[in-house]
Amino acid sequence: MNQPLQTERYLFLAGSLNMLLIIILGALASHALKPQMNIEQQGYWQTALFYHSLHAFTLFLLGFLAQKQPGLVKIWQKLAILNGLGILFFSGGLYVLAMGFQSLHFLIPIGGFIWMIHWGWLSWIWIKPPRLP
Questions:
Q1: Which of 8, 36, 76, 96 would you label with 62, given CA atoms 20 to 30 Å apart?
Q2: CB burial readout 38-71, b (16+ within 10 A) else e
Q3: Could you say which residues form the signal peptide (predicted)?
Q4: Number of H helices, E strands in the chain
């Protein structure tokens, strides 16, 4: 199997698994955790779900880009890694904060910064497209 096809499949799989995780985490919060959470914690959880959803969808976008521009597959892979790290640190940090682990709040801005790099790099690609090999 060639690398671009493999990359797009992994990105589509990562997007699908993240969407499944979002549904599970949303249901968990609505049914099991909500009675134990205060309004502020519920807000953290909802914010985490929102940004997690946006960036899970972005994995599908990167999969389509890998499909349409296989010559740039290394770039799409690196952007996917940044995106995944952003999900882990930003949304993951908010999920953990919502569960009362205040000591890990420093993860959230790290994730936000990683997403800034991710989106800035993707924007730069549209401004000044890289040369295809």
A1: 96
A2: eeebeebbebbbebbbebbebbbbbbebbbebbe
A3: none
A4: 5, 0
